[in-house]
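Quick entry between incubations.
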Amino acid sequence: MASQVVNLRVNERSREFLAAPGTPLLSSLRDALGLMAAKRGCAQGSCGTCTVLLDGRPVMSCLVAVETVDGASVRTLEGVARGGDLDEVQSAFLEGFATQCGFCTAGMIMTAEALLDRNPDPTRAEVVEAISGNVCRCTGYGPIVDAILDAAARRRKEDAAARRKEDIAARWGTADIAATPGTADAAARRRS
Amino acid sequence: MRYKTNPIDRTYFPDEPAPDFNVIGSVVQRSDALGHVTGRSSFFEDLSPPGLLHLKAHRSTRHHARLATVDTSEALAVPGVVRVLTHADIPNNVFTPLKLIGVQPDDEPVLAEGKVRYLGEPICAVVAETEAAAQEGAARVRVGYEELPAVFDVEEALAEGAPIVNEYHGHNYFTYEGHHCRRIRFGDVEAAFAAADHVFEWRYQSAPIEHAPTETTGCVVVPQPDGRLRIHSDTQACFFTLDNTALILGTPFNRLRIVGGTVGGGFGGKVDVAVEPVACVAAMLTGQPVKYVYSRYEEMQVSSPRAAERIYIKDAVTADGRIIGRKITLYVDAGAYSRHSPYGTTKAAAHLPGPYSIPNVWADCHCVFTNRTPSSAMRGFGVTIGDFALESQMDRIARALGMDPLRLRLRNAYRDGDLKAHRKVAEGTALVEVIQKAAEMVGHELPEEYRRMSSMDGGGR
Ligand code: FES
Ligand code: FES
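Done. Structure below.
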């Protein structure tokens, strides 16, 4: 069967490339688009290192034939830090010593992003459940779970600050006196 | 999140100046963490040079067999297959990775020659333009086997008439300075058994353990314009890999360059020289970059596990819990080839009889060849399983004597000045204090006599 043109919106940019039928989304991201953050740990859906967000949902990209998701939007770890600033999950992983060899990290962070997008205040059990498809053979699960809970707390705080800022802006027509610079933008981006 | 650290307990180092204790307890960021959380850390497989070829191995489907025929014609006919390598393509096909520290003889082929000694041993390497073509080619190599009897048990392998696994040794054990095993002879254990109130003997057996790193073993070899080869690898031992690869290729060391250090989990499993030599040969013969990376299946099935060990421990014990003799027979299952197991067996011997002062010790530590997957390094190899056996033995003795297991250990713990079975005088011992502290932390009561014990007192036994 002939290769076909596939269009994806990847990290908010339109990308067009050729793929042979059955090419895994993971291979297209890595080989056709040069996005190397998602990793291949097993190529059979059992480790989670290849996790990316497909239309906002976490998927194991090694199991998705890319031609079946033509037109979808994809988010990878490369698209998480905006303008060079780490987001809350990345900062929490960095400061909470949640990386060892780093090979599972991209998948863990994307899984965490998806969790926090749908559940801003997860319990510890919900975090454990969310990452149950992501293997960390360095077995740093404790710090990873801590970091995700920490990221959720940071994000809730920033979102609250951003909401305050929006309230003030709505009431007084200015946002200048609001708390942390930049957070309203980050929160607005996330909600968009 | 603030990282909490416990203050340092300086009780045991009262004379050391406090400002010197400035490392433990301080928080230092990992230098690679920023790369990991942004996805910018570069692992070997994140490199995809133009013209990259893919290598896949055709592997033995037998545990032990003579290779009657190897037919690569169907593999070569697969569209995209560029070349099929056999042992004849490898300049110095037979090697052993610890040759560099004097471990001999060379006993392992890069690609099987004449026979296979374990299930999954690589026989041919298929090089192709795509991974799928390499896989298809590897599946189409036809091998005719003449089955040989196989041996999977260490004691059976050492028995009279067992099939010889590895002809380079001529018998199923590694030879240590002319001896069939690593030995310790200290005092007179038989006299200790005769004098003891109790004699306890138990057997311990472990299974092989796979490291299962999240990133599988692999490398990308890129020929350079100056004729050198640049090897991007996830080896845990860059220089070791470089030196062994140069010996196998028969090239000066400076023809190779290793780029590594970013390892997606290793745990000891990535110190073998598993993929680089054959990938280098493929790159030299084709003049193109070559990638050889294990599938998850290969990682589980053919990469070296931690060796399985079987350990017999027989102890002479007095009624009040003093161990006066310990006799150990230990078998390390090296699998079909030496790799790091001769060294691991030496480590096992060096660790005996555990951190206890025992006046009579006898040990035979065998490094045994079988038709199982070759074993190699893994976290404390040679020591970890021995410790499992030794400490299980201590617990069982305590139970048999109706004695507190911590007191049994304190009574026998080595002290500074004790002569160890290897005829070294113990220095800097701390087992007594560690047990006392641990007991205190878990609320395990020790009588005064045991709380007053010290590593500094009572030595010279
Ligand atoms: S690489 Fe996709 S789940 Fe392991
Ligand atoms: S950090 Fe190594 S696998 Fe998770």
